[in-house]
Amino acid sequence: MPPRLRQQNVTAAQWNANGEALGASDLTVAANNLFGANVFSVAVQRQRLSKDVFRRLNETLHRGEPLDLSLADGVAQAMKEWALERGATHYTHWFQPLTGSTAEKHDSFYGPAGDGAAIADFSGSELIQGEPDASSFPTGGIRATFEARGYTAWDPTSPAFILENPNGALLCIPTAFVSWTGEALDHKIPLLRSMDALSRSAVKAVRLFGDETAQRVFTTVGAEQEYFFIDEQYYFERPDLVTTGRTLFGAKPPKGHELDDHYFGSIPDRILACMLETERELQKLGVPVKTRHNEVAPNQYEVAPIFENSNVGSDHQQLTMQMMQNVARRYGLICLLHEKPFAGVNGSGKHNNWSMGTDTGVNLLDPGATPSDNLQFLFFCAAVIQAVDRHQELLRASVANAGQDHRLGANEAPPAIISIFLGAELEKAFDAIASGGTLEDTDRSALGMGTPTLPPLPKHGGDRNRTSPFAFTGNKFEFRALGSSMSLALPNTVLNTIVAEAIDHLASELEQALEGGAGLEDAVTDVVARSYRDHRRVCFMGDNYGEAWHQEAEQRGLANLRTTPDALPWLVHERTVGVFGAYGVLSERELESRYEVLVEQYFTQINIEAETAAMIARTMLLPAAVRHLAALQAAGIEALIEEVRPLVEELHFAIGKLGAANTEHPEGAEPLDEAIYMRDHVVVAMDEVRDVADRLEGIVADDLWPLPRYAEMLFIK
Ligand code: ADP
Ligand code: MG
What we know:
The chain is α+β, with helices and mostly antiparallel strands and 717 residues long. It is built from 23 helices and 19 strands. Strands 9, 10, 11, 12, 13, 14, 15, 18 and 19 form a nine-stranded mixed sheet that branches. Strands 1, 2, 5, 6, 7 and 8 form a six-stranded mixed sheet that branches. Helix 12 packs parallel to helix 16 (520-535) and helix 15 (489-515) packs across helix 16. The two termini are 19 Å apart. The structure holds adenosine-5'-diphosphate and magnesium ion. Residues 220-222, 224, 304-307, 353-355, 363, 473, 475-476 line the site of adenosine-5'-diphosphate. Magnesium ion is lined by residues 224, 351, 478.
């Protein structure tokens, strides 16, 4: 029996990271003291900082005021003592370069004391600024090599935390990453700038509604993260998974999710043990994980946190992805975050729940009891509709990558067309306003459960529409087109920026109307009606997966940017440059650098896939097929030889074509042309190799086939 068929026999005791078998009651006790145990939280700060430093730091946090540098020494001292007590020996500025993942460079707290001993030292300047070598990170041409300097700068609005390792602990300080010329080299800076922009616009707007107290409006995010677990034994037998994160070969298994037996099914023991430990680790880091369940595909799962402000939520999302991958290894599992690890099987996305709320606790996207009554809600909701319509292509670009091209529009994920689902009730309200009719509050009656023992549930403001890429879900919008491996930062930066613009636009119209003597209700109704009439084309309540929608969307003039090379140029479109410049979120040069980095990532990733596919096909699959053919020839079974020989020849031919596509790149082409070449030639050639290889997988003797099969990877838990 090939080794891959042996299921790993991991017991509950072995599951525990340290080999100690914790009982359930120990865990309950632990859980109560766990949340935020490794976070330099507000509670810890209150305890450890002087009253004055604590107060000034909090002003920075709550009002978004610039950091007073004289604070830094006091904070650094307290942070160091806290970290040393928790076993930390090193610290790092933790940042998010344009690679899409996080970066660390560790420094020891300890330095020589001069007398042969070592003392722990950590100053304010080490807290607020670091200088990693920027030349090792993508900058999209912002940094010429002679100006390689990049600085990390402390972000006091995202709390420092301690990462534990069996052999030590590390203090991580969330930081922004800038070039020495002050340009953003990371994902955090534009996100922070966009939050500020939206706050300025929204605070101005709520004043028009009579709110004199709100000082700041925070955007919020809660991300539902999908992922796969597979046994690590299979992973290491698949060079494609190891190198590219997705399977480049693999025939469809006899059983998929046709039986619908996985979603919300009970969670297998080993998987659940791994999830529980991951969640414990995340809780220590102050990440408020809340929901877990199986997803549609076999061995696919989802985890979701309670929402937080966009900056902290985005940092926590990076930590979540990191922890999921780290902890999985302790259980003999691999956590796959690729958007499409298995062809023909549902891919993994990330739903980005987004809203905005004042520092006084008002969710601006919460309709309250009667939506049509709630003028302020309608105003902000209209702003979102306007923003999404005006910048639909940019939103699409913000979720583009090579993995997403296998998913968006493939009848399992939202299409590449961006549209908004409002729900029946809200759509009715907007339609009524737009047509100038009177508003009757739609009846939000209770949803009877048909049994006297179950309590009535309040009816949701409209049905669910799982096919919509951008859905209103009660008190927030859910942007559903993100890929599972992505940072939340860029899509949220885009959302915040374009909504800030729309709020300003509507607010200035409203202000004019009010100055002209109109009453608030009439003025808001008027402004909302006009905006909705102009932008309602982006609202769609039907089935987003159907072919009919593609045609209708085209008639409505909505963009359908199917692939990454179609979408990315919108990052540098003049409309994007205009709004990002006007709100100080990203300069044209910064946008261009991001565009370049993303285009390069796209073609580099496909290039790696293509070379990996060629290597596997040539050195693993073709030899297996040839051996199988040789065995048939030795046995002299003509009918079988006739069946296999043409496939072997076809595979050989397809490998040759892929090899040629891999070497015949256009000379001196622009990066975007290179990306288009990859999409139109290399991906096609890869698909051809895969097609014949997958047919051979169904014929070649099992003991000769060198790759673990889909059925094994997806069903052994
Ligand atoms: P649903 O099941 O409709 O998707 P949930 O209530 O389960 O809705 O929420 C899903 C995600 O949305 C969670 O991560 C949750 O924290 C997040 N969420 C809820 N309210 C908000 C909000 N105001 N802003 C941002 N995210 C939110
Ligand atoms: Mg959801």
